[in-house]
Amino acid sequence: LPVAMTGWTFGAYRRTAANAGARDAALTLAEGLARFRWLTLQGKTGTGKTHLCAAIVIRRAERRLRSEYAVVPMLLNQLRDGYNNGAYHDTILRVQRMPLLILDDMGAGKGTAWADEQLYLILNDRHLNQRETVIATNLTLGEIEPRLADRMSSTKSGFGVIRSLTGGSQR
Questions:
Q1: Residues facing 165 on adjacent strands
Q2: For position 170, what pLDDT does the model report?
């Protein structure tokens, strides 16, 4: 977790009527009490998605549970660099197998066929193995590549939930 985010706890999060559903779902997942396995946080820039992602990581660490926070464009850069330095396979396996993976800023980078394929490989594996996953995005599902959106919107049988954050800026 980046140093600047180490104080972004649930206690420091400003809970409002506009973000209560997202905050409560994030806390439930962080505490290990969620019936769902995937949480998609959707909202405009500044609504508190990244703060909730950091709060989940912090709470999980307090409970000595493994999780990984990744900003999607940076993760994609790591995967791309892995082709040159031999770390590609280890990197993709690490994020596929992490008990809880948090992908922040999905859709923030330039969408390419290669990037969509890498994200699909990660999300599809996590979906098939029912590993906990949090995705934060400022895009609607309709703006996301269809195969990725399909995995993100898998809400049947309570597998995943989508929570929108609205209202003013949390910054």
A1: 43
A2: 66
